[in-house]
Amino acid sequence: MNKTHWIIAAIAAALMFLLGFLTGKAVYDRPITEKVERDTIVITDTIPQYFPQPVEVEKVRTEYKWLTRIQPVGKTDTLLMRDSVLVEVPIESKHYHANEYDAWVSGYVPSLDSIKVYKKTEYITERVTLSKPPNRFTIGLQGGYGYGFKSKQLEPYVGIGIGIRIF
Predict the structure, then answer these.
(1) Where are the domains positioned within the chain?
(2) Which residue of 75, 92, 96, 146 has the smallest Cβ count within 10 Å?
């Protein structure tokens, strides 16, 4: 081989190296596609709370009511004495509080016997799928039949080559 063949081979090798570098860069610089699917489930829980204790008690006013008092006289229940008595009745307002509820009750001897709390819970499930598009360029071992520039005829070929995926 003379000097010009070595120069052509070196230039061809440099061009192949540059082409391989650009092909590799195109393969690894592909954009990443992201697919996000979200499911939301809302569940309402019922939590019964019996006989909660008041947080705050406030006396609103006092009312006076006449009540009839029936009292037995003597040892027998046959003779009854009726009498009216003025009774002081406090009117109260009670405040019941928790993270899930607020309740105010007022009236004669206010009390809250039970309360149901409806607490909403959301479950959000998120599925993220990351994917890259398929490689368009490939580098690999190739074999086939091709035209030989030196022999000027068709001959078998085995070597490393660059391919482009069409479909």
Answers:
(1) 1-31+132-167, 35-131
(2) 75
Q: Distance (Å, rounded) from C-alpha 141 to C-alpha 157?
A: 11
Q: What angle do CA 159, 163, 165 make, to 5 degrees?
A: 150
Q: Are 133 and 31 in contact (CB under 8 A)?
A: yes
pTM of the model: 0.35
Nearest alpha carbon to residue 139 among 118, 161, 167 = 161
Phi, psi angles (nearest 5°) of residue 109:
40, 70
Residue 133 exposure: Cα atoms within 13 Å on the Cβ side: 9
**51-70: pLDDT as tens digits:** 777 788 888 888 888 877 67
Which residues touch 125 (CB under 8 Å, ≥6 apart)?
A: 38, 39, 40, 41
